[in-house]
Amino acid sequence: MIVGAAAVELTIHGSRSLKEKRGVVRSICRRVRNRFDVSVAEVGGQGTWTRALLGFAAVGSDARVVRRVLDQVVDFVEDLHLAELGASEVEILRLPHAVGLPDDDDGEPEEDEGANGAR
User: Fold this and answer.
1) Is residue 71 part of a domain?
2) How far is the first Cα of the chain from the last one, in angstroms, to the nearest whole number?
3) CA atoms within 13 A on the CB side of 38
4) Sheet containing 2-11, strands listed edge to edge, beginning at the edge strand earlier in sequence
């Protein structure tokens, strides 16, 4: 399983209150969710009027696809021109397979030996 995470620092120019900033952040989050199949949240800067840190997460089976989606999300946020994009970072993690799932599934059902091991 591949898990990708991206962090984007934003500066919201002209914001004079937390309410104005939240409106911009909500708009960006809504547009990202509508366009991409990713999770998004404001993960930093909640107490400031002009700065925000947004986090994005995507899960998949191919690291290149997950990275490409997150790179597209970062580009999309920048192209919205609702806030100035500061630093951004994308990380890709490869997690071990879920417990109990076979690594090589050939589509054949597993043989059950029964309760006492006899066939």
Assistant:
1) yes
2) 36
3) 30
4) 39-44, 51-60, 2-11, 84-94
In the chain, the number of structural domains is: 1
Q: DSSP states of the chain as a string?
A: -EEEEEEEEEE-TT--SHHHHHHHHHHHHHHHHHHSS-EEEEEE-TT-SSEEEEEEEEEES-HHHHHHHHHHHHHHHHHH-SSEEEEEEEEEEEPPPPTT--SS--SPPPPP--SSS--
User: Which residues span the domain enclosing 70?
Assistant: 2-94
CATH number of residue 12's parent domain: 3.30.70.1120
In DSSP terms, 44 is beta-bridged to 53
pLDDT of the chain along its 119 residues, tens only? Answer: 999 999 999 999 999 999 999 999 999 999 999 999 999 999 999 999 999 999 999 999 999 999 999 999 999 999 999 999 999 999 999 988 755 555 554 444 444 444 444 43
Locate 45 and state its tokens.
Answer: 């800067």
